């Protein structure tokens, strides 16, 4: 526990050193929001275990996976403010998002072929709905907060928040219908989970392709700059009187 506190303290200090007051405050809030999302994911798993719902447990595992992706991005932001040094963490966050989303799609496809009705008690349904609505609220805040930021990793936090919100809609719908005592077709949850999971996976692919493009553009600019610098030095060495160097 002491090591954890020290790690958090060191990260907080690096953020304050590398960023202005506004960005530092936003990143600290993002770190706290990630911890809160982790608790929400554990809450889903516990609620799913109490109601014998594998569906709720899988949603909780997805939340934990996306929290890991969020912390990959945040770790890159903490370790360096240089854009080039952040590319690895951006790509890692995108890969984590794709992997978690594809696993969720695989489970959703399985539930379509093996539908199983799960009846939540009212208290459990209210608890799950409250957790998912809270998670959606936190993620929507992240999308809005970072909409104007162009730093690679802050952009990653926005995309991760959007993808997590999509998946949360599936469990929210299931809990609301259970609370309303409406008959559910269990395959509907699987279908909606497949669609939202594919969308979230595509967002992760977009993240990876985007950072590859940005990195290629940076390398091209560096090569162009070096070539121009070399040519300028060559012109400076040219002797106009002798016509040579």
TrEMBL record:
Localization of this protein: Membrane
Record keywords, A-Z: Membrane, Transmembrane, Transmembrane helix
Organismal lineage: Bacteria, Bacillati, Bacillota, Clostridia, Lachnospirales
Membrane-spanning residues: 26-46, 52-76, 88-110, 122-144, 156-179, 191-208
InterPro entries assigned: Cation_efflux_TMD_sf
Membrane topology category: Multi-pass membrane protein
Protein name: Uncharacterized protein
GO cellular component: membrane
């Amino acid at each position: 526990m002491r090591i954890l506190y020290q790690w958090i303290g060191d990260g907080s200090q690096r953020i304050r050193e590398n960023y202005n007051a506004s960005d530092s405050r936003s990143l600290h809030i993002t770190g706290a929001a990630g911890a809160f999302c982790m608790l929400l994911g554990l809450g889903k798993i516990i609620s799913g275990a109490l109601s014998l719902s594998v569906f709720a447990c899988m949603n909780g595992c997805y939340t934990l996976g996306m929290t890991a992706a969020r912390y990959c991005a945040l770790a890159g932001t903490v370790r360096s403010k240089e854009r080039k040094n952040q590319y690895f963490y951006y790509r890692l966050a995108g890969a984590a998002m794709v992997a978690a989303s594809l696993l969720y799609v695989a489970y959703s496809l399985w539930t379509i072929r093996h539908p199983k009705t799960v009846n939540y008690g009212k208290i459990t349904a209210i608890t799950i709905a409250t957790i998912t609505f809270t998670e959606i609220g936190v993620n929507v805040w992240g999308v809005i907060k970072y909409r104007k930021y162009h730093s690679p990793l802050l952009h990653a936090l926005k995309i991760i928040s959007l993808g997590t919100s999509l998946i949360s809609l599936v469990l929210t719908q299931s809990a609301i219908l259970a609370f309303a005592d409406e008959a559910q077709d269990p395959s509907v949850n699987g279908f909606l989970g497949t669609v939202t999971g594919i969308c979230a996976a595509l967002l992760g692919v977009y993240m990876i392709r985007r950072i590859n493009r940005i990195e290629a553009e940076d390398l091209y600019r560096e090569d162009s700059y070096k070539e121009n610098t070399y040519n300028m030095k060559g012109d400076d060495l040219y002797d106009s009187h002798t016509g040579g160097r």
